[in-house]
Design brief:
Distance between the termini: 23 Å
Oligomer: single chain
CATH topology of the largest domain: Thiol Ester Dehydrase, Chain A
Keywords: Hydrolase
GO molecular function: fatty acyl-CoA hydrolase activity
Protein name: Thioesterase-like superfamily-domain-containing protein
Number of helices: 4
Pfam families: 4HBT_3 (PF13622), 4HBT_3C (PF20789)
CATH class of the largest domain: Alpha Beta
CATH superfamily of the largest domain: Hotdog Thioesterase
Helix content: 10-25%
Family: Belongs to the C/M/P thioester hydrolase family.
Length: 262
Amino acid sequence: MKIHSMHCYFILAGNAAVPIVYHVENVRSGRSYATRSVHAKQKGQTIFTTTCSFTRPVSEDTDEPRRTVQHSIKFPKEVPAPEDCLTGAQMINKWLSEGRVGAEVAEFLKQGEANDPFEFRRAGIVNDTPETDPTHKLQRQWVRARGNILDEGTHLPALAYFSDSSFIGTASRVNPQARSGQVGMKVSLDHTIYFHNARNTRVDRWLLVESDSPWAADERALVTQRIWDPEVGLLATCYQEGLMRLRDGREGESENHVNSKL
């Protein structure tokens, strides 16, 4: 069976220096679908939960495809190619030259970018004008694993991993109210992934990630994401809600991204 959806909740911030114990419950194992519940714990406390649903792939050698309803959002038009977009290091240097970050922050960001198992190239924000409503803006970026992945079973977990990278930050990038260091706190609360083309998903080639934010209020923001392979089509759709608070002058306030990925 192949996974087709994950519904995750980030309960507490994880500590990379502390071992994680995963408790897996077999909720159901049917002929076509299976469900597993996972609790990740550190020092006896649950820091993360997810419910994973698996399905038996439809066989192309039987009559099953005849029972399948099919449609999909098409790959966007007029997207700059990865080679025409700035690398992570080039983007950081651009921010430094524009005065958006200082030298110390730029060096910190470069180290993080160099150590990331994935390479990201931003393809811009569609409709990024002051008069455009934030809900009508789209953020696009290319992403690819550094190096080839030989283990076929690694591609879907790897996609789940990178799908959380800078995801909730979409809300602050499309809304001028939350730009220019105005966000004091930004934390992922939950994360949902729907896998659409598991058998053809490979993360060691360039994938396009398009995200938007349909809603933000009550110190929370909702973001959605679509992940495409230009040659295959839509691979996954993701949803995430996060806590987002603007700065209000409190002592010790800073825009810290709690590392929720395990």
